[in-house]
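Two records follow; treat each independently.
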Amino acid sequence: MKRRSHQITGKRGDSSWVERTASRTMLRAVRFKDEDFSKPVIAVAIPYTNGTPCNDHIRNLGDLVQNEIEAAGGKAIVFGTPVVSDGISMGTEAMKYSLVSREVIADAIELMTEGYQVDGVLTLSGCDKTIPAALMPIARNDLVGLTLYGGSILPGQHGHQELNIVSAFEGIGAHSAGKIDTRELHEIESCACPGAGSCGGMYTANTMASAIEAMGMSVTGSSSHMAVDRNNQLSVDKCRDAGESVRALMKLLKKGITARQIMTRKAFENALTVAWALGGSTNAVLHLLALAREARVPLTLKDISDITARVPLLGNFKPFGRYLMNDLHALGGVPMVMKVLMDAGFLHGDCLTVTGHTIAENLTSAPDCPSGQDVLFPVSAPYAPAGRHIRILYGNLAKEGCVLKQSGKKLNTMSGPAKVFNREEDALGAILSGKINSGDIIVIRYEGPKGGPGMREMLSPSAALMGAGLGDSVALITDGRFSGGTHGIMIGHVAPEAQIGGSLALVQDGDRIEINLEREELNLVISEAEFVSRNKNRQEPPQRYQSGVLAKYARLVSSASTGAVTSSFD
C-alpha cells in the first residue's frame, strides 16, 4: 500500500527529501524521534468535553488509544473535535447546533486526516452526533480507519427505581400535571445520571453504536460495553476495546483494507436490521442515510421502509420498554443479538469487518440468547411483529416521506384536530399549561434542517406529553426530529419541510389530520381547492439567522429525506 504520510517519513535520496526535512524538524519539537519517521502515522480524533457525561471520559480513553498505538508500532497525531450535548441543549436554541455539529465534526476530522495525510485514523465518540460524525469522513475519503464508541452510562438509582436521562424529562411533565412534587423531581434530577457514558436506553447513541458495529466499522462487542464502572473509572471492557481497536487498525493498514470495502450495501442492511430489531432511534434513519451518501452507497427512505417491514422488534428497551444497555451487556451484548438475527437469516454473514474477518467469523464465539429473560425476545415470539417499530409514511403532508416510531404499539388510523405551533417552545408551553387535550394532533413546524435551522429534537414536548399521561392519546408531528428517548405517537422528519414550501406550512388550527398506517400515509384532510388557495397565499418566512454557522448550514443542508447533509455529490 502506498503510504499517505510520505512527506514526514521520506528517506534520504527521495526527490523531495529536503522539503520533508522541514516537516520532520517541526515534529521533533513535539517529541517525534528518528525512529518515529518510519512508523505509520495514525490520526486519533478525541471529542472530549467535561460539558456532558457522554464524553467526560473520552480524553482518558483517547490517552489509552494513543498509548496502544505507540505500543503497536505506530505514531499518533491527536486532536479534539466539538461536542454539543443533546441532553443539555434540549428544548433551547442551543439544540439548533446539535445536528449542525455532526457536519462540523466530520469536516474537522477530514481537515486533520487530509491536512496531515495520515496513514490511518481511529475516531472516538460519545454523545449522539459525534458517532455518525466519527465515521462520515472515513467513508467520505475511503480511509483506512475505524471508530470506537465511548460506551453507555450506568443507570442511576432512586430508591428501588432505576433512572436515566429521560426520567428527568418525563419528571418535568409529571410535575406539571401534579403527579409528583418538587422534592421528588429534584431527587430524580440528582440521581438520573451517576457518571460518565452516553444515555443508557436504546436512544440515539446506543442505537448508532450498535448499527455501526453491525456494519462492521467497530470491533466486536464494543457498542454494548459500559463506559465506566461504579467508581467512574474506565471499564475493563472499554480498556480492552481500545487495544482491540488499535490492533484491528494495524491489520487493516497491513492488508490495505479501506472503509468502502466494508461499508457496502449489505453492510448497511445489517446496520438497519440490528437497529430496528433492538428498537432503535428514529435518528438512525437520518444518520444512516448520511453515512450511505458519504460511502457512495445507494440508500433511500423506500429502502429503509422495505427493511423495517421485515424485521421483528426483539428488544424490550427504554424509552418504550423496560431495560437499558447494561442489561443487554449482561446477556452477551450486541454480538448475542447479531447471532440471533444471523441464525434466523436476517443478517449477511459474509460482510467484511474492521477485524479483517467476516460478520459470521466474528460471531463464532458469541453466546446464544439466554432463556428465562425478557430483555431480548426470540425471533419466533418477538416483542412485536415485523413492521411495528419504525414506519416510513408518505401522503399530502409528507410527499418526500416522514418517520413514525411505533415501537410495537397497536395503532392503525388516528385522526384529530390540529394544534399548530411554529416553535418547539410554544408547543411545550401549551402542554405544560394544560391546553392540549386527548385526541389532539400537535404540529410543530419551521423546525426542519433549513427552517430551524438545525432540525431540533422534540424531547421536551414529547416527554411532557408522556409525563402528563397524554402519550397514548395525543400525536405530535414535526419537520424537526426526535430524541432517541422519545416515545408516544410521534412523527418526525416531515419532508419537504415547512420552510421550503412543504404542506406542513399550510395546516391551520382545527384542521383534521389523519395518520393512516394501513395506507402508510399522513394527510391533511382538506379539499384540493383549499390546498390550491392556501398555497397561493403562502409566504415563505425569512431565515431566522442571517450570519454565522446556522446561516451557512441553512444554505447548504439537504432535505431530511436524504439525511440532512451538507456534502454534495451531484
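The next record belongs to a different protein.
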Amino acid sequence: MRRPPGPPPWLWLLAGLYLSQVPATVTWWTAQAKDLLGLGAYPEQVTTTGGFRALLALSVAQLAPTAFLLAGILALPLPRLRCRFTEWRHDLRRPLPGEPFAEIQRFLADRAPGVELRVSPTRSDLTARVYPAGPRATRIAVFVPLTVLWRRDRAAAETLLLHELGHHRNGEQHVAGLGSPFVALLRSWPYVFALCGLLPAGLLLVSGEPSAHLMFAQVVLVLLRVPEVLLLPVGALWSAELAADRHAAAARGGAAQGGAELLRVLAAVEEADTGRLAALHHPPARLRRWFARRAGSPSAQLLLVALLPLALLADLLLTVAGATVAYRLLDVPWERAAGRALSLADHQVTAGPEWWAVLAVLAVWPLLAPVWPRLWAPDGRPGGRLSPGPYATAALVPALVLAVALAPWGSTADPVATKAPAPAPPADPVGTAAPPPATDPAGQPTGTAMATATATACPTPSPPAAPARPTGLPAPDTAAGELPATDPAAVPLGTFRTARVVSAEPLLGTPRQLVDDVADRLSGARWTLAADGTLTDDTGEPPLRRTGGLHGEKHTTTEVSATAVWTDADLRPAPDADGLRLVLVRAATGVNHAVIACRAFDATTTTAGVFVLELSPTP
C-alpha cells in the first residue's frame, strides 16, 4: 500500500541552516567571551558588581542554545557514537528470547526490515522511541509501558510502533528521536533561561543596583529569545510528529479507519513523556485528535506543510515587537523605534537564508516527496500522489514576506557593518550589554557603585551633580585617521541619511555590545545641516553646533539621577564616494544617587565610542 507523502523535511532544513551558520556563531561567541571575561579590559571593581554577575548569567542563558545546536550538528555525522551514548544513557539492551519481544521484533521486521529492537527494563516514563544506529540503520527503543500495553491492548501498541516507523521512513531519527541534542535543547532551555536569565535579571532590577538601567533594553531582547529559540524547532517537530501519526493511521487501514484507531490510542494511552514542556516536542493532544479526524484531508496536509513557514513568520513578528520596545527603552520615539525595528526585520528577511530556503524547499518538494523514503529505508516504498495545492498555499507565506521586504518601500538603511552576524532561529543568540567600567567625575575608573557615608542622620534622595566630561577622548580627526582637509563652508547644507556605518569602536573599555546599540540607532538616522552650522538628527542625540568643529551636549536630570551625553564630530566630503563622511566621538555618563540605610550612594557609569558614518543626500 502506498503511504501518504510526508511533509517537507523541515528538521533537516533547520539542521542545514544551523550548520551553515556555525562559523559565524563561533566567531560571535569568541568575541563575547573576550568582552565578558575581559582579558584585562575590566577593572576588578567592575567584575565584582551585581550588574557584571547578572551579565555573565544572561550570557550563559544565551550560550546554552548554541551549545546544544553545535552538539546536534556534531551528532549528525556520528550516528554510531550517538547510538552508544543513547543506549548507555537509557539502559537499552538486546531483548531476551521469548515473548513479547519476539513478537514485537517480528512485527517490526514485517513492516520495516532492518529496524532493530532494543529494550529498557528499568525506565517507565516512555513507551517507544526511534534513534539512529548508523547512516541508514535504525533502532526502536521499547520501554516498560509498551510491553505492558502489548499484552493488554496489542492494537494500540502496534499503532505506537507504527508511529515510530513513520519517523524512520522520513529519516527524522537522525535529527530528532531519542538522544537528540536538538530535542534536549527544547527540554532544558526554558529551565536554563529561567535560572540564568530571568532570575538574575529580576534580582538585579529589584535590588537597586545602579547599573541596572543600562540593561533594560537588553533584558527585553533576552526575554524574547525564549520564543525565538523555540519557535522554529517546535514547528518542525510538530510537523514531523503529525506526519508520523498519519503514517500510523494509514498503516492501520487508511485515513478513516486508521484515524479512528489513532483516536482510540490517543484517548487510551497516556504517555509518561507528557510533562509541563511536552508540547515543545510533541503536539498537544487536542491538536493530534483534530489531525487524526482529518488525516486524509487537504487541510491536514496544509498544516504539515505550513507549520514551519508560520513559525518563521511568528519569529519575525516577535523580532519587530521586541526591537520596538528595546528602542523605546533607549529613549527613541515610538515612530522612529517602530521604523528601526521594521528596518531590522527587513534586513533579517533579505540578508538571511531562512526565507529563501523555505521557499526553495516548497518549490522542489513535490518532486522529491515520492522518493524521499528510499533514502532512509532500504525497501522504502514511494509515497502516494501529492496534491500541489497545500504547497502552493504554504509558499504564499515566504513569497509575500520576501516581496514586501524587497519592495522599494523597504528599509533604506544599510545594516551595521560592524555588528556580528546573528545565527537562524533557534541557533542566532542576541548580545547583552555589559556594564562598562565606571568613572568618577575626573574620568578615573572606579567601582560601579561608589559609596560615601554622609554626615547627616538620614539624607533624602536628591539629584546628583551633573557629571563631568570624561578625559582621554580622542579628537574626531585623530580617531578617523587621515582625511583630506576641507573648508567647512564647502560642506553642502541640507538633509542626509546614514548610508552606511563604516566602523564603530569602543573607547575607555566600553564593551562592544553598547557600541553596537548606538551604531544600530545611527544606522537609520536622518541628519539636517542648517545654515547656522547646527547638525541635528532624529535619534535623540544632542544637536551638534559648529564652533571650529561640531560639538554637542545633552543633559537629563531626574529626582535621583543625572545623565550627560557629549559628542564631538568631524564632517567632511567622503574621500571615495559622493556624500559626506561624519566621524563622531560620543561619550555618555550617568550618575544615580540613592540612600540606603541612611547612607548616600553615588553610582557613576560611563560609555564611549567612536563612529564613522557615510551620509548621502536625501531626495
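Discussion point: The chain has a mean pLDDT of 74. How would you locate this feature using only the C-alpha cell line?
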